[in-house]
Amino acid sequence: MPTTSNPAIRNLLTLDGAVAPAGTDRSGGGAPSAAPDRPITLDDIVVKTLTVLAVLTVSAVLTVFFALGFLALPALLAGLGIGIHLSVRPRPGAGPVLLFAAVQGIVLGEATRFFDGLHPGVGTQAVLGTGCLFAGTLAAYATRVVRVSAKVTRWAVGLAIGLLVLFLADLVASEVFGADLGLRNGGVVAVVVSVVVIAAASFFFLVEFEAANRFLQSGASHRWAWYVAFGLAMTLVWLYLELLRLLSYLRWW
Question: How many C-beta neighbours within 10 Å does residue 60 have?
């Protein structure tokens, strides 16, 4: 089994029902089930991922066009809840994944409107940057320029946990003690932190590609392609938001 920093992909590949070959009896007998199911293919993953990204994009565009920014906070909380639920209790259906994409689109739309209002053009730059980083990591994985090992993955997971703890400490210091640790104020330290976060998110794409490849090899049901798309979308949203922040910092300099 592959190791991945994304809980969605990690749970996906450790779930008994996910790794069981499609159309077989999970009791171990190997007999065909009452409702045979075809195994997952690369086309399934590509189509489902594009569908999720389309819903994400349409939701973001509608949020900006109809000025639905007041829904951003509820959408953020809803997306967090759905993301945690799907990560802890994996589901191979389209509904929760598409709902996650729709509410996250509201968050992305409002974030883009806010940062683009402060610094015109950063939204377009963030979209292009996210696309380039995704394509670059996919090409690096496909050509085996970068190999994902268990040791490197553990370091990446440790880095992500460390960043989370650091950001929580910054939030507590700011809200409770009124102190500024300089992690999100646009200074040199903030830029360095953003670059590290973007590098970590880009590497997580590589880990998830490897996990999805192993998942394909397991012969699981094609319905789990929705869950693979969910895991990729989580990282993409994280990467895009951090790029927006970094580009806004650079405009201040």
Answer: 25
Which is it for the CA torsion 166, 171, 174, 180, positive or negative? positive
pLDDT at 2 over 60: no
Mapped onto helix, strand or coil, the DSSP state of residue 92 is: coil
In a domain, 97, yes or no: yes
Any domain includes 102: yes
Q: What is the domain count for the chain?
A: 1
Structure tokens at 96: 């929760």
**Nearest Cα to Cα of residue 138 among 14, 242, 45, 35:** 45
Q: Is the dihedral of CA 121, 123, 127, 133 positive or negative?
A: positive
Domain of 129, in residue numbers: 7-252
Per-residue model confidence as pLDDT tens digits over 59-96: 999 999 999 999 999 999 999 899 888 878 887 789 99
With 0-12 CB in 10 A as exposed, 13-18 as middle and 19+ as buried, what is 231?
Answer: buried
Q: Please answer whether residues 232 and 99 qualify as being in contact, where contact means their C-beta atoms are separated by less than 8 angstroms.
A: no
Exposure letters 69-99 (e unless 16+ CB within 10 A, then b): bebbeebbebbeebbeebbeebbbebebbbe
